[in-house]
Amino acid sequence: MLPENIIQHLATQISTCTDKQTKIKRISAVAGGDICQSFLIETHNKKYFLKLSEHNAKALFKAEAFGLNSIAETAVIRTPKVICEGSFEQYQYLILEYLELRRNGDVKLLAKALANLHLTTREQFGFQQDNFIGLTPQTNTWETDWVYFFAEHRLKYQLQLLTNKGVPNRLLKSGSELIGLIPHFFDDYCPQASFIHGDLWSGNYAFDENGFPVIYDPACYYADHEAELAMMELFGSPGESFFSAYHDIFKIDSGYSRRKPLYNLYHLLNHANIFGGGYINQSLSCIHSLLKSF
């Protein structure tokens, strides 16, 4: 059970942000991610989802709230509504709309919604602010060149983090060699800057009580839309019907299959940074496979 003072603080914040007097009846722990604790807040007529941390997560929660609000502004796919975020004593928190979610739903609806999200474009790659991919800071400095952006702010950044973690030198050397070859993956392909969720594996999307897709835990930025599609296939796949429905709205280039492991290398390197272990070998194997493609 949470201390009474934090419960009262949360009730006050919800009251202020919703402009409705709120008294919390119950707070119970629910399943969530590895980064923070998750709770269901119940009032007399409303439920809220609470993320709570005692580990300096203020910047993390601010970035998540900004990302959720940015997706919501597109009005093409549902996200949990942000109620408020802040800190109290040693706690940092993010309070969201509580949604009854289910794992199964119409993946064609998900495909169409995501395609329309990705059709939200800008002239440059990056985002209005830096954010996080998991617990790792993600740099989103605006760039006009996607190849430079991905090489510099994604792969090179992850490799630099790994240099301080005692990984095999052959991974760093091979990774640097691959970065020099990245332009060749784009000889016949010039991506536009599409708005993407950024961390869209199967654990970060679901369906609401009416069967409509919902996405959450974003790491948003403007990128090649293929980077999103690749991530969705890294730990499983939404299936052929998803890609067919997506392609009807936003064409998937024939070279996607070649670039897919390149994009997923970013997430493998990030997992290697966070978890180490087998992800280091997976990253090395991915790099070697990409190098052999030349």
Draw up the topology in text:
Layout: H1 4-18, E1 26-29, E2 37-42, E3 47-53, H2 58-74, E4 82-88, E5 91-97, H3 107-118, E6 121-122, E7 131-133, E8 136-138, H4 146-162, H5 169-181, E9 193-196, E10 205-207, E11 213-215, E12 221-223, H6 225-234, H7 240-249, H8 256-275, H9 278-292
Antiparallel strand pairs: 1-2, 2-3, 3-5, 4-5, 6-9, 7-8, 9-12, 10-11
From the structure provided, what is the oligomeric state, counting identical versus distinct chains? Answer: single chain
| Number of distinct beta strands | 12
Shape: globular
List SSEs in N-to-C order: HEEEHEEHEEEHHEEEEHHHH
Helix count from the secondary structure assignment: 9
Give the overall pLDDT as a whole number: 95
Overall radius of gyration? 20 Å
- Which strand order does the major sheet show? 1-2-3-5-4
Helix content: 40-55%
Strand content: 15-25%
Q: Low-confidence parts lasting 5 or more residues at pLDDT below 50?
A: none
Structural class: alpha+beta
Spatial separation of the terminal alpha carbons: 57 Å
Question: How would a textbook summarize the main sheet?
Answer: 5 strands, antiparallel
Description:
The protein is α+β, with helices and mostly antiparallel strands and 294 residues long. 44% of the residues lie in helices and 18% in strands. The chain contains nine helices and twelve strands. A five-stranded antiparallel beta sheet has the order 1-2-3-5-4, with helices on both faces. The longest helix is centred in the last third of the chain and has 20 residues, at 256-275. It is globular.
